[in-house]
Write a structure and sequence with these properties.
Rossmann fold; about 400 residues; two-stranded antiparallel ribbon; single chain; about 10% strand; 16 helices; five-stranded parallel sheet; 7 strands; alpha/beta
Length: about 400
């Protein structure tokens, strides 16, 4: 199995899943996790020191002056250079094609005729790659939070920009209807207050209880993190309420959570380096500064929270000057496998929009799409008995749900 990322290790994730799956699954299967190339205990790739990583995450992610753009692009270039400086024997070989070969080696080493797979988010990209390269070895594959392999980095980021905008509005509506959250009486009021906060942070970073000032980028990081799962929506409301009263601690802690940051300049893993090392190699080069600026303006035009969409464009800056790229260009998935594949899509998934699951299901002709009509990133194991039951039935018996099956939130 693979938890996503790219850049997330899988050993601890497997331990977690082994405790969460149904007793029948635990009895029938060995739950096997691995740290993909460049992550965790698999000779981690390092492109930034911890101090450099913290500085990068805090840097203005919506530069609006020549000096700010220059600073962002220079820092972005240094990430690529750092990979070759700190781990030159690893960095060129951590892309998804290489990891796909590793999956085949793992299958062979385990003595399994077929590979059974549970992949989330980026784990669906790795799973799709395996389905294309080793069609006769495909067993029961669950692809939850599907990525459309035909899209380049900017197209992927645009989809996420739209997804997170929608997710924030769903959060704000829930805040009004269910909590009450105390940060506004309407979606428009909450949105306006967040826009004022982000504008303030762009000029005057906010004090926190950790001795680190909350920049706009870190504030956005906190919001993005919380929108990944409804489990964090209450924390987001508390954090925004704190920030509206000049305390950035809550948003900073949410940002740290998403980046696996354990302190002002300490991290629990190399996830930030591994993310860029894998993602930037996998896809063609992103545009330079002018192209990123143009996209940022286009994507933020008309968006409820413009800075969220603009930052999605600028997040591609490191891939503008990466040292090498996959020679195979993005294309629709193409496989001769006849194995039944289960694709799970969440209607309001911010990070892997539902349209990507629909697209991948059309590309993989032996697949069936299972829809969760809810919020959050990925669905299996997130509290939906309907989703969990359908996935368990498929894993245990190979029985796909009825085409078009939808599970209510």
């Amino acid at each position: 199995m693979n938890p996503g990322g790219p850049g997330s290790p899988g050993l601890d994730f497997a331990k977690y899943v082994a405790k969460e799956v149904s007793p029948a699954i635990a009895k029938e299967f060995d739950i096997i996790g691995f740290d993909p190339r460049g992550t965790g205990k698999s000779s981690p790739v390092n492109c930034m020191t911890a101090k450099q990583t913290a500085s990068w995450l805090a840097m203005d992610s919506t530069p609006d002056s020549t000096s700010e753009v220059t600073a962002v692009m220079k820092a972005a270039q240094n990430i690529s250079k750092g990979c070759l400086r700190y781990t030159p024997r690893i960095a060129p070989f951590v892309g998804t094609p290489s990891a796909t070969q590793d999956l085949e080696l793992l299958r062979s080493a385990l003595g399994d005729e077929k590979l059974n797979w549970l992949g989330f988010s980026y784990g669906t990209s790795l799973g799709t790659s395996y389905i294309e390269k080793f069609p006769t070895h495909v067993g029961r594959f669950v692809l939850d939070g599907a990525v459309d392999p035909s899209l380049n980095s900017m197209q992927l980021s645009l989809g996420q920009a739209k997804g997170f905008q929608h997710a924030f509005q769903n959060y704000a509506q829930h805040c009004i209807d269910e909590m009450p959250c105390g940060i506004g009486n309407s979606r428009s009021e909450i949105t306006a207050k967040v826009n004022r906060l982000l504008a303030q942070l762009d000029v005057h970073p906010m004090a926190t209880k950790h001795g680190v000032r909350l920049t706009q980028s870190l504030g956005l990081g906190g919001i993005f993190t919380a929108l990944y799962t409804t489990d964090l929506w209450d924390l987001l409301s508390d954090a925004l309420d704190q920030a509206f009263h000049s305390d950035g601690t809550g948003l900073l802690e949410l940002s740290w959570m998403g980046a696996d940051q354990t302190g002002p300049s300490t991290f629990g893993s190399n996830m930030q380096s591994a993310y860029y090392a894998i993602d930037c190699w996998d896809l063609p080069a992103s545009p330079g500064a002018a192209g990123l600026a143009t996209a940022a303006k286009q994507w933020s035009r008309g968006a409820a929270i413009p800075e969220m969409s603009a930052s999605m464009s600028w997040s591609n800056a490191p891939c503008s000057s990466w040292f090498a790229h996959n020679p195979v260009l993005p294309a629709p998935a193409n496989s001769t496998t006849t194995a039944p594949i289960l694709i799970v899509g969440t209607r309001f998934d911010p990070a892997t929009p539902y349209v990507w699951a629909q697209a991948l299901s059309q590309q993989l002709t032996s697949s069936t799409l299972l829809t969760y009509e809810g919020n959050g990133h990925t669905a299996f194991g997130s509290g939906s008995p309907c989703i969990d039951s359908a996935v368990n039935e498929y894993l245990l018996r190979g029985t796909l749900p009825t085409p078009g099956k939808r599970c209510a939130a």
